[in-house]
Amino acid sequence: MQSLAMSALTFYKDKCFMDLQHRLCSAIVELITKDREGEYVDWDLLKNSITAFVHLGFINADILKQDDDYVWRGDKNLQVYETNFEREFIERSRNEYSVKSAGWMQQFNCPEYLRAIEKHLLKEEERANYFLQPETKGKLLNVIQNVGIENQAQRLVEMETGCDQMFN
User: Which of 107, 124, 139, 141 is deepest in the core (most CB within 10 A)?
Assistant: First the structure.
């Protein structure tokens, strides 16, 4: 027999969350985009919103009192998180950084471009450490490195300020 907490979580997931998941995911990704653009965003709100996707995947969930609050505990299962948040987040991040890197290629010389990518990688790592699941961090950083460095490597080398010019 399911616990009351597990029954409540299942009911919420089936009756409420499934209808709202796309809007919630889009709103979260929009907030992350705003943060990337330098606007103020409440990171605790993001963390709690993203954590909801994790909680909805719990197996054998229960509610425990911790200090003056109640928290969900259960066996972690990231299927809901990966399916309903992570995939869209990674894809939208890929698209954002494709646009950003194309703009930077027009705007910066090679060293400036590499500094911009490094700055954004460090900030994305900070974000990932704060409000994403650890499993997402590597995927996100790999996407940014791929889009920002690997896809632009040849053009960076061939720039007037790139390696070709330094070694010739």
Answer: 124
Determine if residue 29 is left, alpha or beta; phi over 0 gives left, psi from -120 to 50 gives alpha, anything else beta: alpha
* Euclidean distance between CA atoms 49 and 28, whole angstroms: 7
Question: Helix-strand-coil percent breakdown of the chain, rounded to 5?
Answer: 75, 10, 15
Domains defined for the chain, CATH in brackets: 4-158 (1.20.1310.10)
Residue 100 CB contacts under 8 Å (≥ 6 apart), including other chains: 120, 148
Whole-model pTM: value is 0.82
Q: 57 falls in which pLDDT band (50, 70, 90)?
A: confident
Residue 27: other Cβ atoms inside 10 A = 13
Task: With CA atoms as reference, report the closest residue to 128 among 50, 18, 39, 40.
Answer: 50
Q: What are the two backbone dihedrals, phi and then psi, of residue 152, each rounded to the nearest 5 degrees? A: -105, 0
pLDDT tens-digit profile of 5-38? 667 767 777 777 777 888 999 999 999 999 999 9
3-state secondary structure at position 77? coil
Are 104 and 113 in contact by the 8 Å Cβ rule? The answer is yes
- The separation between the first and the last C-alpha atoms of the chain, rounded to the nearest angstrom, is 74
